[in-house]
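Dear support,

Our group has been running a series of protein-ligand predictions, and this particular one with FE2/S2 (inorganic) cluster is the one our PI (initials K.S.) wants archived with full inputs and outputs. We had some confusion internally about which version of the output was final, so please treat the block below as the authoritative record. The input we submitted was:
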Amino acid sequence: MPLMRDPKTFRSHAWFHGDQYEHLARRAWLRSEGFGQDTFDGRPVIGICNSWSELTNCNAHLRQVAEAVKRGVWAAGGIPLEFPTISLGEMFMKPTTMMFRNLMSMDVEESIAANPIDGVVLLCGCDKTTPAQLMGAASADIPAIMVTGGPMLSGRWNGEPLGSGTDGRRLFEQVRAGRIGEEQWAEVEGCISRSAGHCTVMGTASTMASMAEALGMMLPGGAAIPAVDARRYQLAEASGRRIVAMVSEDLKPSAIMTREALENAVRVDMAIGGSTNAVVHLLALAGRLGIDLKLNDFDRLSRETPFIANVKPSGEFLMEDFYYAGGLPCVMKEILPLLHAAARTVSGKTLADDLAGVEIRNRDIVKRADRPLNAEGGTAVLYGNLAPDGAVIKQTAASPHLLRHRGKAVVFERYEELRARIDDPDLAIDENSVLVLKNAGPRGGPGFPEWGHLPIPAKLLKAGVQDIVRVSDARMSGTSFGTDVLHISPESAAGGPLAAVRTGDEIELNVPERRIDLRIEENAIKRRIEAAPPQPPRYRRGYGKLFLEQVTQAHEGCDFRFLRKDA
Ligand code: FES
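Confirmed final output from the archive:
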């Protein structure tokens, strides 16, 4: 397409055009990669920001995806230059990938800002790589488009479909209850993760890919295409073409990720029963954009948005099925009256234009908005004397009979203690107890690990108990399910009331009324917190020290204070 902008206004122009030595040197050094002299004739330079890594198995195919992006960029008249960033592999990194989301976002932002790039294609997939790239691109604010790696193919075992994460956890409880043996468990290992791509339920990776599409940062329909489907490579090529046009239009993330787009993303998160992690990531993203999105906005929007995507862990199907049913555009079409239809997307059009021709192909998987799976959205926000700044629960993945519950706390001060004692036959616990874990938040974990789906004690599993109320300041994997109260804020390590809970105290959960309360005297809570011994910092140097000093609490998105737009 013809360029609408004078190439002299491109960022890269300042690097390559001029008569000083450095201009010659930059051209010469780039020509050393085999580019011809006409590389510098006014074409936009498109960075391909690749989180490929063999240590991030979900993103291990992104080099092939990058090749498809390059085809599109060349065809549209741009120059593609691929560059790596750090990558965050959910399965491997310790103490938790969440500790490094902000670091990756800084790498993405600075790599874009420091280089002769006019536009950027963001390649990501595994849980934290997607928000990290969105946050970095928001802060850099040059034209950007996202291509996620897509979900892996559905697993299958004993004739039943297996969704990575969700079904693995479900079957592991059967192992702990003694109902599945070693040989069967080895079979599960061999068939639960069938191809390249990210987890194939509506866990954090699928949710964040959906958020990128709902925000308008991905071409329509891109989130759910399976990783190994040819149509993902076609999407990548189309995105390569489109970013060149976006540079010409000077269409930046700040013009796409507006307050309206963020509200659209929150509503879509509720409609798909998305991961509770999306709450933290969208709050952080809003902070980067200078948009005043608050935790209670999620609850307001959740109460008005029906849950309609029948995908695990809140529903029955897998991401592959969801794609064949029409994917995210079908969900967005169904709730379009609730969305800001005039929001602009990377397509250059409005959301309403993008959704104009969408047809819903399978009503088992995408329900009607007036006949939803749940009248409210997936996530509820709770407040109370145990969570003055808020907590979250995935109500659609919880047990209905536990949504109003009062029980005696069984408290673990640290995760290591929980691991050591949870299966102790002498642990005094029954199905009415409330499991409590402290010191698992952003500073306490440290890093805000996904420990919030506390294991049910083996003796209860053997007795047939399938769920109990669990309360912590941790996060939970988006693939998990159960009555888990998460993200208690302020966290116990920051002096939050969770620090005051003792075994035997009564805790009352009331999700319909959005309450989580410790039923002891308010003065007793205060006295116990004041008497608690200070915890020594877990890191005294390096990135860990920076993290502990700068990370904000869960209800603020856990970004570093100095990375917010208003810092
Ligand atoms: Fe990477 Fe689930 S482990 S998406």
